[in-house]
């Protein structure tokens, strides 16, 4: 027998529904009122295709590595890529959004082997509707999209918080390919396997925090040495003028003078011209821009020159060509220290401790991870001027004597920087005045 309510209660229930307003409307298919929209994998793939592009990486040996990346932030020009494919090289370029654009590494996750690239000037970028936070169910069939537009259906074998195992219906799983959610959005990306695990899909949920770090968002200012260290690294990785002033230009004068003397001596020995002029003006700003990562990325003109010339290759093993910088445990190629330093910084830097010496001098101890996940640690000397702190890249003997006992040695001693600047100056002299004349080849008999 139906439940009977008193008249007053029936009126109260009616008023409750009226006053609460209309319920949120469920999504409907056009022309079919009240029918929930069904997942459409084909439409999801079509929407995702413009967000997947090809990444070109020019390695130091002249070979070219190619894989796929996914645009994540159209406004900031940020793309998800594979860490192992974009470190230890000369230049990075992204082909998509109607052209070929230079790119730079701005953030990386050494544990999950992923990276975020910044592509200045790229326009018309399409990004996924969303980063999907759910984990797929076993036996679920999903599309896997490569940068060349190839789609492979895969069956989910298992999924956990850390990785998704899939089995392709045919063919093989391409590194960098995007796992597409049938309702739209990025569900994951294929990352390289290890000796213990095959190539697998990294859930997209892990991309969110890396993306936030790549955006360089920080509330810190340069009003204390610790804040300056954190703020300058956050700004420097994004490049641009925001990082200007993070490096104290005063110690650079002696470094640049020493580099100029060395460059002219080398050039004279190579060419026999001992009277070649080399202007010192402008080098302070140029070197500061390099140290603050404000220098523009290399031109992408090399992409067309190498297209089709070399097939995709397997990158060398982690740190295969790198050396230990003994004083800190920093694994870098000493011949490419600035480039490799940027790569290490992209993995994240921790401020361990800070000690202020007087009112305008301080030491900050920082630590980070190498590509092989070993830890490095070094000390950096900061100086204050006008209430704002800047990095001293060449501490003098008096400053080095104030390094707290037990702290790791300072890398910023000026010797390697002088060599970097000298090589830049020699390249500049070769460009302006020409290098040594090529020896004439002997005619064949």
Topology of this structure?
Layout: H1 7-19, H2 41-48, E1 52-59, E2 64-73, E3 78-82, H3 83-86, E4 89-96, E5 99-109, E6 114-118, E7 141-145, E8 151-159, E9 164-168, E10 178-180, E11 186-191, E12 200-203, H4 207-214, H5 225-238, H6 252-271, H7 283-291, H8 302-306, E13 323-325, E14 330-332, H9 337-346, E15 349-356, E16 361-369, E17 375-385, E18 388-392, H10 397-401, H11 415-433
Antiparallel strand pairs: 1-2, 1-4, 2-3, 3-6, 4-5, 5-6, 7-8, 7-10, 8-9, 10-11, 11-12, 13-14, 15-16, 16-17, 17-18
Helix pairs in contact: 6-11
Written overview of the protein:
There is one protein chain. The model is unreliable at 8-36 and 315-321 (pLDDT under 50). The chain has helices at 7-19, 41-48, 83-86, 207-214, 225-238, 252-271, 283-291, 302-306, 337-346, 397-401, 415-433, and strands spanning 52-59, 64-73, 78-82, 89-96, 99-109, 114-118, 141-145, 151-159, 164-168, 178-180, 186-191, 200-203, 323-325, 330-332, 349-356, 361-369, 375-385, 388-392. It is globular and about 70 Å long. The termini are far apart. The protein is built from 11 helices and 18 strands. α6 crosses α11. The strands form 4 sheets. It has a 6-stranded antiparallel β-barrel with strand order 1-2-3-6-5-4. The protein has a 6-stranded antiparallel beta sheet with strand order 9-8-7-10-11-12. The chain has a 4-stranded antiparallel beta sheet with strand order 15-16-17-18. It is α+β, with helices and mostly antiparallel strands and 445 residues long.
């Amino acid at each position: 027998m139906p439940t009977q309510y008193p008249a007053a209660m029936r009126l109260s229930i009616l008023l409750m529904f009226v006053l609460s307003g209309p319920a949120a409307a469920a999504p409907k298919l056009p022309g079919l009122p009240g029918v929930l929209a069904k997942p459409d994998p084909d439409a999801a793939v079509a929407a995702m295709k413009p967000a997947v592009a090809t990444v070109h990486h020019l390695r130091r040996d002249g070979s070219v590595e190619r894989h796929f990346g996914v645009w994540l932030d159209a406004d900031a020009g940020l793309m998800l890529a594979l860490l192992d494919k974009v470190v230890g090289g000369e230049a990075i370029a992204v082909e998509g959004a109607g052209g070929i654009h230079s790119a730079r590494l701005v953030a990386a996750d050494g544990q999950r082997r992923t990276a975020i690239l910044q592509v200045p000037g790229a326009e018309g970028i399409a990004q996924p509707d969303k980063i999907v936070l759910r984990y797929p169910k076993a036996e679920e069939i999903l599309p896997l999209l490569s940068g060349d537009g190839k789609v492979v259906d895969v069956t989910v074998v298992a999924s956990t918080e850390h990785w998704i195992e899939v089995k392709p219906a045919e063919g093989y799983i391409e590194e960098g390919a995007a796992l597409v959610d049938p309702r739209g959005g990025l569900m994951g990306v294929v990352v390289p396997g290890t000796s213990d695990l095959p190539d697998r899909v990294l859930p997209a949920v892990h991309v969110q925090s890396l993306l936030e770090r790549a955006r360089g968002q920080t509330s810190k200012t340069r009003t204390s040495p610790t804040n300056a260290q954190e703020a300058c690294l956050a700004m420097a990785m994004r490049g641009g003028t925001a990082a200007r002033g993070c490096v104290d230009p005063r110690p650079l004068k002696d470094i640049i003078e020493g580099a100029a003397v060395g460059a002219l001596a080398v050039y004279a020995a190579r060419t026999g011209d001992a009277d070649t002029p080399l202007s010192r003006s402008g080098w302070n700003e140029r070197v500061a821009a390099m140290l603050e990562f404000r220098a523009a990325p290399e031109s992408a003109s090399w992409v067309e020159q190498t297209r089709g010339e070399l097939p995709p290759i397997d990158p060398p093993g982690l740190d295969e060509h790198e050396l230990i910088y003994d004083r800190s445990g920093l694994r870098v190629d000493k011949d490419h220290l600035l480039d490799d330093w940027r790569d290490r910084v992209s993995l994240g830097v921790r401020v361990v401790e800070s000690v202020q010496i007087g009112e305008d001098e301080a030491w900050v101890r920082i630590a980070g991870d190498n590509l092989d996940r070993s830890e490095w640690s070094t000390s950096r000397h900061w100086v204050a001027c006008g209430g704002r702190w800047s990095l001293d890249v060449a501490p003098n003997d008096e400053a080095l004597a104030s390094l707290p006992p037990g702290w790791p040695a300072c890398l910023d001693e000026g010797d390697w920087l002088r060599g970097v600047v000298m090589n830049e100056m020699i390249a500049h002299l070769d460009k302006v005045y020409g290098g040594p004349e090529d020896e004439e080849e002997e005619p064949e008999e």
